[in-house]
Amino acid sequence: MLRFKLDARRVYILLSGGTALFFSIAYSLNLVYQVEIIGLDPLQLVLVGTTLEAAAFLFEIPTGIVADVYSRKWSILIGYALIGCGQLIEGLIPTFAAVLVAQVVWGVGYTFTSGATQAWIADEVGEAQVGNVFVRGAQAGQIGGIIGLIISTALATLQLNLPLVIGGVGMLVVTVLMIFIMPETGFQRRPRHERGSWYTMVSTFREGVGLVRLRPVLITILAVSLITGLYSEGLDRLWQKHVLDNFTLDLFEPVIWFGIIGLVSTFLSLGMQEYVRRRLNLQNPQTPVRALLVIASFMVGGMLVFSLTASFALAIIANLLISMLRSTTGPIFDAWLNQNATTGTRATMFSMSGQLNALGQVAGGPAVGWVGRRYSVRAALTISSLLLATQIPLLTRSLRRQPAPADEVVVDLS
Predict the structure, then answer these.
(1) What is the pTM of this model?
(2) Contact 157, 252 (CB under 8 A)
């Protein structure tokens, strides 16, 4: 077999951009496909997302062992091959059962790539160089995502399943290409005691519980992470159905409207992220809490407007506001958690936060979906906004208890 190994940096950038391109092609408008072609109701839409989250949660540990024991490269390639197969299953078989199977395949595939991709490039280029490579990869991913959204919109105007089919085929092509050009020279098997296991996951929770007892602020941080999972699944899975069911989309076809919304949302999110990077001093202990409080407050208002208004223009403005604000919560939340975890406990707390977020999505999604089926999508989205609103008193209390440093700079977030 002929092999043409390229520089690991270039391969990582190509992999980041290529997978983001075909992922964006496949999934930018897949909710429209699920509603319009398969005919999923609100509960079924949310159960699709719950199935994906549950599969990713359950298989995170066992698939991680492949990357630790056998090969980072092959773990990545298995993962993207499964993701591509999941996209093809959903695009070629328009039934609810097939969509659920696709989510399991997709979710398991994701766990093969989760952490393995970052570990692979770190092994290849070294810790000193990997930060810059991560940035370049993220930039390639953003470009690929924007191009993919445009292609997805064009394909969907022809046939709604085409983006999933093309995205799946493209993901498999990228996988085959990586077999030939992806180097793996820095991999070393981890010692047995450092490998992932179910026991390790249980131990993580036990260790985290002990830490929370010592630092009560961590209770608030973890509660905020859980609430994020509880509210987000309903919003993510139902917003497009809400637009399709409750508004008349004049001028353009629905897929074109969603493509326009996606593009505008992407550019607004990039601008908001740059604003946060330049204007917020996240080293200040109060800044992350204050920023999260303001973001949560505006998002609750935006979600209520989006779910209840009869004006299409107002609903889209509210949706863009929600998307723009959500794009900044991740790094701000991470900064808050990072400030309150010691060096030796940081990994444990981030792991617990991620697990609670996933559990929140699995627990909250079906309940919100049932409300959407039993009553209306508007009611389900309203419930999601009220779930998010429970963060506000938690963040307010945390802000009051957080001592202000002497050199505090007040940041205007309005």
Answers:
(1) 0.80
(2) no
